[in-house]
Amino acid sequence: MAATATTKPSALSSSLSNPSPLPRTHKSPPSFSPKTLPKPTFPLKTSSVSRTPKPSSFTLRSKNPISDVLSAANQNPDDHSIDYVDDEKPREECGVVGIYGDPEASRLCYLALHALQHRGQEGAGIVCVQDDVLQSITGVGLVSEVFNQTKLDQLPGDLAIGHVRYSTAGSSMLKNVQPFVAGYRFGSVGVAHNGNLVNYRSLRARLEDNGSIFNTSSDTEVVLHLIAISKHRPFLLRIVDACEQIQGAYSMVFVTKDKLVAVRDPHGFRPLVMGRRSNGSVVFASETCALDLIEATYEREVFPGEIIVVDKEGVQSLCLMSHPQPKQCIFEHIYFALPNSVVFGRSVYESRRAFGEILATEAPVDCDVVIAVPDSGVVAALGYAAKAGVAFQQGLIRSHYVGRTFIEPSQKIRDFGVKLKLSPVRAVLEGKRVVVVDDSIVRGTTSSKIVRLLKEAGAKEVHMRIASPPIIGSCYYGVDTPSSEELISNRMSVEEIREFIGSDSLAFLPIGKLEKMLGSQSPNFCYACFSGKYPVEPREIKVKRVGDSLDDGLVGSFENIDGGWVQANHSPEEEKDKEFEGVVI
């Protein structure tokens, strides 16, 4: 089994513990119950902690360890209806939230998850702590479908974590919806995880050989088992022990009866930020947009390789292990994060606008109007239009009311999935030379249908501009991407792709210009999906099956979302573990 080096962590410097807060503005406050929130009684002074804290301060007990979760209403495991989802785009897998010290922790967690809904729409869950007991409610569906007033009333307490998910490892069923809660010798622990462990399969095989029993197919459960079998008594050191054995991407929040813990992997693949509310409560979230909604002030990122513990003693920061050059996911700025978020210290809006400006400079074309593929292409299109001196208009209108299930007429409608979501505006397009800006091309199926849709609406010319470099490799760090065989840029040249999608011209964002725009921060980003060079070499790989997508790029079912195991870079010893593989390509 490949494992990370067990370098002993050292305390973070005071400069890391006390960075200058980034000023942030807030919109109108969210609506809660009218009572005034009391001031917390615990100190929140950031300090360093050694590898050997006092055992007594970390002793964990629980009155009632919880191993099962409560299902939300409207669950129907026998439902076999067809679901229409956007399989053409890479999908961020999860969003996490953690809140300590607020009497309305579960309600704030609910609102923060709503702000992170774009990061996962298959399931949601919240774990709250009251009277030293971890109480959990999870369900399949959107946050608003899983939770209501009655369910939130069942989650009292001032300490909570939450999660929204897509599935990278583990199928889309209720038992795989996080946060997970489990009991072990010294108490109960809950965990919410954003990312993907590249050595999950070998770790699970080793644990099962030693008698561990798994209840889910999620890689996150491995972390709980590693915590449970650790020889260390303090919970913090159990987390450190577990993280020294896992490889890949993980931004995680843990909760015990009296602690909130945030952890980020040594490469910092996935984002995780820290903020505070005016009453002193501490908040962790995948994006700053979640902080904005619940009126928490952004303080800083959780640093790569850092573990932060929040309890009644305050906030403690520890370097998890020595970490290499950060490798933050560039697709957070291209597609995943909301434009109003600050991710990896950069404004997502400004990054996307700059991508559009670069495209206008590097790939100009005579045109009458610039439009976007909504919603992710809008900001880049604004940048392109401003730089090109051409009007930006809404040539495609996205329907925000498309449900998960639609019954197609018996007489098949061409491009049905695309037409459900995108409607062309003939008044904008007819007789015009149109530049259409999108964030990426994955399989190319949806792009071809969009081009056809625009031309059927009267566009004289359609010029595609893509605000990212060509995607040639799958992501193994928490993003749901197809296998490399399905990636059109891995199989075709730019000209061949242009012919396939039917556009009059096609241009991608040059990767060299992207790196130049990022400046001194450029080496801190992961470009593996553009280069095929992986910071953490994948050993066992979870991707979608070849041929997963149905009809067009916007159609698929829950059964297809999960995909199968694809083998790569395996040693002969690893071949004996094939029982975990659904499909070998």
TrEMBL record:
Its cofactor is [4Fe-4S] cluster. Its EC number is 2.4.2.14. It holds the Pfam family GATase_7. The keyword Transmembrane helix does not apply. Keywords: Glutamine amidotransferase, Glycosyltransferase, Iron, Iron-sulfur, Metal-binding, Purine biosynthesis, Transferase. CDD domains: GPATase_N, PRTases_typeI. It catalyses: 5-phospho-beta-D-ribosylamine + L-glutamate + diphosphate = 5-phospho-alpha-D-ribose 1-diphosphate + L-glutamine + H2O. Residues 48-64 have a biased composition (Polar residues). Residues 94-313 form the Glutamine amidotransferase type-2 domain. It is an enzyme of class 2 (transferase). Residues 1-64 are annotated as: Disordered. The keyword Glycosyltransferase applies. GO terms for molecular function: amidophosphoribosyltransferase activity; iron-sulfur cluster binding. One of its GO terms (biological process) is 'de novo' IMP biosynthetic process. It comes from the Eukaryota. Residues 1-19, 33-47 have a biased composition (Low complexity). This is amidophosphoribosyltransferase.
